[in-house]
Design brief:
Layout: H1 2-9, H2 18-21, E1 41-45, E2 53-61, E3 64-69, E4 73-78, E5 90-92, E6 105-118, E7 121-143, E8 146-165, E9 179-191, E10 196-205, E11 223-231, E12 237-239, H3 264-270, H4 278-281
Antiparallel strand pairs: 1-2, 1-11, 2-3, 3-4, 5-6, 6-7, 7-8, 8-9, 9-10, 10-11, 11-12
Length: about 280
């Protein structure tokens, strides 16, 4: 985490606490996302054994948020939903919906191609997802950077992967039915004045495991992403060591039947969904 500390100690603006930055969520309706200044930065951790990841805001115009990920990867999001812009997507992906208020609920549904690169080649597949979200309330969340009041948003999403193809992985085969389905449960804590989620817990399993699946579980199967630094140009800056973040590489998808590692089921269960880029599909 020395990388985080080093990136924030340079410059003339001193670090402040979350209270001094006045980033708490307010109890009311948030009509639209806050317009933040270009140069705003967020840094996240998924555990001490993994490198931190950073986002830099390049600008918010015409309903789009433009970001730089890490040291140069460009990302464009829909400002009102926080979903990545994907011209290959059919339907609508909504991680947030405005106006945002406690008690709000919404559903979203979309389909898009996926493409995952592995050491043995790149494979493509069809991806479908149906999600439902609920703003449960406002909670005080204890983070390494301090305590903050945030909107708690719970989401449940059912997904399906099918039709995998690859010219490099011709030995892959199906062991059973030619599709893999999954269920993801997540809890996100969102602070409007900060402009992003400050903490997210997520877990994925076979849909039949749904009655037992909870992102509040403290097991090693839950992935926890935590904000560890924030910087606003000419304003608030903060940093801290993560106290929740975790991601264990040795965890296998929950409650799926055992399959051979040279089957499509194995890859589609294990690998997270990565949207295919338009350039790859041309």
């Amino acid at each position: 985490m020395a990388l985080v500390a080093g990136s924030l100690t340079a410059g003339a603006v001193s670090a402040k606490t979350l209270d001094a930055c006045k980033l708490d969520a307010i109890d009311g309706t948030i009509e639209r996302p806050l317009q933040l200044a270009p140069g705003t930065r967020w840094t996240y951790s998924v555990g001490a054994d993994h490198p931190v990841s950073s986002l830099r805001l390049d600008g918010m115009t015409q309903g789009l948020t433009r970001l730089t990920v890490g040291h140069g990867v460009q990302r464009v999001e829909h400002t009102d939903t926080y979903a990545d812009v994907n011209p290959l997507r059919r339907g609508r992906k909504e991680l947030l919906r405005f106006p945002l208020a406690v008690g709000a609920t919404w559903t979203d549904e979309f389909a898009e191609p996926g493409a995952v690169g592995r050491a043995i080649g790149v494979y493509h597949y069809d991806y479908e997802e149906k999600g439902s979200s609920h703003v449960v309330g406002i909670e005080t969340v204890k983070l390494g950077v301090g305590n903050v009041h945030a909107y708690r948003i719970e989401r449940s999403a059912r997904w399906r992967k099918s039709n995998p193809t690859s010219t490099d992985m011709t030995d892959m085969r199906w062991q059973g039915q030619e599709a893999v389905e999954g269920l993801e449960r997540s809890i996100s804590w969102y602070v409007p004045a900060l402009g992003r989620v400050v903490l997210k817990r997520s877990i994925t399993a076979h849909p039949s495991y749904g009655p037992y699946l909870s992102a509040e579980d403290n097991s090693r199967d839950v992935i926890v992403t935590e904000l560890v630094a924030f910087e606003s140009p000419g304003g608030c800056r903060m940093e801290g060591e993560p106290i929740h973040a975790q991601r264990f590489a040795d965890r296998q998808p929950l409650h799926y039947p055992l399959v051979f590692n040279n089957t499509w089921e194995f890859l589609l269960q294990r690998d997270p969904h990565i949207p295919e880029q338009a350039a790859l599909a041309e």
